[in-house]
Design brief:
The chain has about 200 residues and is of the alpha/beta class. It contains 5 helices and 7 strands. The chain has a single domain, classed as Vaccinia Virus protein VP39 (Rossmann fold), CATH 3.40.50.150. It binds S-adenosylmethionine (SAM).
Length: about 200
């Protein structure tokens, strides 16, 4: 059965609800210019990471406006400048489509998380086999990689979460209307670092 078809506003609501679940020290990778600031629970101690200098400057400004005192990290998520077991959650929206080394990023997320720590990711993903959307995504990806900061339209990170040692707690898949393109499949993933017995 195809994933439910929703509009942008409904997707925003799903994202905010998901991001609002995390607590404690939260590392947001690929935080961009700070689109997610309105979603965090007031108790969150936010740490941003953003490699693009222009976006990071905007992010720093908005972080101050939202009273998050810490300056965003100038780094890629493949090499996170934080100690082992130092954050309670690692979060990212529309960033796993862009990273160079997906497995390397998830290994780093695992390293910096406390035991049992949480991951929350939202991203657009490749459509099911033998669909027109998937064909469009495959054809477009060589272009989007060049002109959209490395963005791959033909990825699905869900299998990589399990391979990196994360357990899924809540996985949602929806499709979002994106005129004039076919509806875009979106993955919303909430999970935790596996411990013995998971
Ligand atoms: C599509 S934007 C999403 C920004 C923001 N998360 C949002 O939802 O609006 C992708 C972001 O990931 C960042 N990015 C790209 N490669 C990255 C990497 N290897 N590690 C961390 N961030 C990366 C880009 O600079 C960009 O800000």
């Amino acid at each position: 059965m195809p994933a439910p078809l929703i509009d942008d506003d409904a997707l925003d609501d799903l994202e905010r609800e998901l991001l609002g679940r995390v607590r404690g020290r939260v590392l947001e990778i690929g935080a961009g210019d700070g689109a997610n600031f309105g979603a965090w629970h007031p108790d969150v101690e936010w740490i941003g990471l953003e490699p693009d200098a222009t976006r990071r400057a905007e992010l720093a400004t908005r972080a101050r406006e939202w009273r998050h005192p810490r300056a965003p990290l100038d780094a890629v998520a493949e090499s996170i400048p934080l100690p082992d077991a130092s954050v309670d959650a690692v979060v990212g929206t529309y960033v796993l489509c862009s990273v160079t080394d997906l497995e390397g990023v998830l290994a780093e997320a695992r390293r910096v998380l406390v035991p049992g720590g949480r991951i929350v990711f939202v991203d657009h993903v490749i459509a099911p086999p033998r669909t027109f959307t998937r064909l469009v995504q495959r054809v477009a990806t060589p272009v989007t990689r060049r002109v959209c900061h490395g963005c791959h339209w033909d990825r699905d990170p869900e299998p990589a979460f399990a391979a990196a040692g994360f357990v899924a707690d809540d996985v949602q898949r929806v499709r979002v209307r994106t005129t004039p393109f076919p509806a875009e499949p979106i993955l919303l993933f909430d999970g935790h670092a596996a411990a013995r017995g998971d």
